[in-house]
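Recap quiz, item 2
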Amino acid sequence: MKWGMVIDLKRCVGCYGCQLSCKAEHGTPRGIFFARVLKQEEGQYPTVSQTFLPVLCNHCEDPPCVEACPTGASFIWEDDGTVDIDHDICVGCRTCMLACPYSNRYFNDNEQAYYGDKGQTPFENARTTQHQEGVVMKCNFCRDRRQAGKEPACVANCPTVARHFGDLDDPTSNVSRLIKERAGFVLHPDKGTKPNVYYLPA
Amino acid sequence: MTSARYDRLINDLKSEYRPQREWAEGRGAFLIYGHFLVGVAAGGWLLSRYYGSFDGLVLSYVLACSGGLAHLVNLARPERVLNMMQRYKTSWVSRGFWGLTFFLIGGVLYLLSRNELGAPLGVESLLSGIGDILAVIGSLTMMGYMGFVYTASKGIPFWNSTLHPVLYIAYAIRGGIAALVLMLALRGHELAGDGGLLELWIGVTAVVIVLWALEIQGAISSGDETAKRSINDLLAGRLAIYFYGGTLVIGLVVPLILTTGTIAPLSANILAVIGLASIIGDFFMKYSSIKAGVYLPVRLPHLHR
């Protein structure tokens, strides 16, 4: 099995629901975004269009981050092909961040309080402090949710159903079908990383 | 994360060309120091061994120790440093760690078998031979691994060049020659001016200039806008002062003029200045080229220029 995601750019309205639900799900500290939404403009006035490009870890089949990691902290789960980080092993050298052509890895060197000297909020106390400092963090396709039989938070909370999640190894899955029928494409195919996050044209 | 750093990160994420700060600022700056020190140490050890300079060997060993410490400071979790031995099959950082380990172990064995220290391990002993081999393997690995680490960084197109390893190896040799010239000149040793060291420095410097020209030409002609942005930062932007002032003027022009002997005869002091200027120039080369790294922007394929 190989988990993959398909993001329909025609349906995305740039509401940032994925970004917020991800932060709520994982309690990620300030400055760390497992999911982001980029705005990209095309054309020149008066013929200008804007495209929203949601990005996250591409869970590549040939991930340069895993190859570059000196400790084995970055690894691929053999059972589902997702790329993950073992925070108990990571030394915080940040090599993987520079190896990733998609800039979807973040370094957590936070003092984990949004309001600084005023200390942690109850939410921070409950959620963000679970994360180790001095390590690199990234999306893991919501492994905990998947193990509980749920979809990743960004998929489940997308109000326009722009995100689809499924098994790319199964030719009958919704993701495989969408990629085939609507000419799904990946970002930076020239980098040879074989991403498992696909986009459908706007 | 302080508010200022958070705001800067958000601005970076919004910008089209996001400068890499991971290996350039704060704790990350120690990686630049580490690569600089380890490069000079590796080149210095090999040349000192060839020229039989005990002082040069000791200096190289001290520099390698300092470089290793700088690498440790760069890590956010230095207490886990031994984990870096795990992935030598794929990771150049891990290979570099092994190289430095070999060098530090082999170097001390080799130094302890030298007559200058009373040869407690014996001059022709097995340990001496093992130390020699380990130190040489370590030196060669240290010279090579840095460039490959940058080449493997697919997120930074300017570094992701096949020339980078060759450039770093050439710079390590040049740094090693300069450190040896500096050390010998300060000790008043005649080898500093004779023995072909200066000629070797000029030859390697010529190679470095050609490699830099190819690197810049390659980045400009690659059609990659991100690599061009890095070159622009280097030659006409935020890093131009370091590149022109440090790498070119201090590192190339000043020592090259001094080697001609037209300004002053090649005394021990002038040789020391040549060595020091060359080393400072090497530092600025690494500083400016590492800081010039810019992340590959994430765009839809049809928006790529």
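Residues 16-296 of chain B form a domain with the Formate dehydrogenase/DMSO reductase fold fold (CATH 1.20.1630.10).
Residues 126-151 of chain B form the longest helix (26 residues).
End of item.
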